[in-house]
Amino acid sequence: MSEIIKAQIPISVLKKIREDLMIPILGTHEEKKKIIEKQNYATQFIIKTFYNKKDDEGKKRIIQSGIVDILIFIFGRRELSQITRNIILAFQVLSYPYNDEIILLLYQKNPFSGLLRLYEHRDNVVTFDGLLFILNIIVDDFNTTSDNSHRPYYDTINACRGIEKIMKLFRINGNKKTKDTAAIRHGQIFRAKEINDKQMPIELIRHLKTLVNDTDEWTYTNSKLTLCHLALNTLNRAEIESDVFAIPE
């Protein structure tokens, strides 16, 4: 359950966080280590301030301060090995608990290219956290568009080769949580649309069908929901109902 707690972060603190995050990681090994520690401290402050808290005004101040722009720049430009989990979590905590206005503000920053780049990160946890943010964007779309409408974020993701990257992540990533989330995420992108790649829906739907009785509540709930939406398309439904499969209630 989220808390409704408002934190009035002083402008001087926002400025210091922004300045610390802007420091390029250069120098000797020890100098780089100190810069990373300083940036981890800055991002930990954001995480602790907003984790699971419904402080929409505070989150708007973070977005408007320029801190989010710097985080997105880091996602897109920094060497992947230097992108720590705290960097992505500082971004992710702003998107949850869900709020239409905050999601729209983050979406308008066009973070997808940088977030999709994290799919190449060697740390599966960082990769998964990137997926979770994109999933929060999808939640907004699920709540505001009808089953047969075109998803407004689809072209943006596709332009970044996002569909291809998510499918690649599903096919080659050995981490179950990441693989399951990638399958659900991909299915949600297409929702009631027919998937043009003939092999792709078979792979995705078959995997989603194995998740409806998963021990993880989030996984089985969202796999069933995703299958229900995919089934609104006739061809997808035929694949789903093969082997006399029925989506559980």
From TrEMBL:
It comes from Streblomastix strix. It comes from the Eukaryota. This is Uncharacterized protein.
